[in-house]
Give the backbone structure.
Amino acid sequence: MSESVPVRCPACRRERLYTVPSYLCACGAPVAPALDPGAAPTAVVHRAWDEDWVTLHCGTCGRDGQWPHPELGCPCGTALRLPVTGTRPRRAQPEAPRREPEVEPAGPHRPAFRSVTIRTALDAVTAAALYLRWLGHGEVRRADQRPTSGIGLAAAGLLAQVDPSVRPAALRDVECLWLTAMTQSADCVYFSLAGYADEARAGADRLRVPLFLLDLTGTPQPVNAAAAALHARGA
C-alpha cells in the first residue's frame, strides 16, 4: 500500500495528507520515491524539465528510471515540490537498437504509427505525444497547468493527461481532466499505463472522454467508444 504522509504548505501553513505514488517499471515491478522526512517542501515558482523528474532505482531488476518528482497542489494555489531521498543522478544511457512496433493506418493517406518502447515515465509521455501528433495535432507541448496526477500535455484545442502510475485511473482523475478542458473550451484525452477503474470508464463514457491504455510497447489502445472514434477519424 502507498505511504501517506502529512505535508505543511510553507505559504499558508495548512497541512494536507499526501499519498506517495508508485510507478510501473519496465519489468512490471512497482517503484516509488521515498520522501525525505528531514526536509521541508518547497514552492514551485519556475518550472524546469530536469527538476520535474527524479531517477529511481528498481530493486527488482536493477534498472534506473525517470519518474515525475512528487508534487502536491495546495488549496491556496501553491504547487509544492516534496523532497525525496535515495534518488540517482540523471545520466544518458546507451540503448540497444530496437524495433519499433507499428499501428496500421486508421484512415486514408495516414502513415503507420511508430511508437517508442516504454521504460520510464518520460517514455510514456513521449509515446502519448507522438500518438497525438499522428492523430493530427501539430504543436504538442507540456500543459501549463499540472494535473492532479500524472503529466499534462496540450495542443491547440486539446488537453491530454498521461498517467504512468501503477494505480488504475479513478473517476476523479477523469472528471478533473474534463472540467479543466471545459474551462479552456478544449477537448480532452486520457492515457494510462495501469488502466481504469470501472467508475472511471463509466464516467468517461458519460462525459465522452477518450480513454487509451498504453502498453509497454508504447502503442495506445482505445478503451472506450470515444477513443475508438478518435483513433479512426484523427484530429
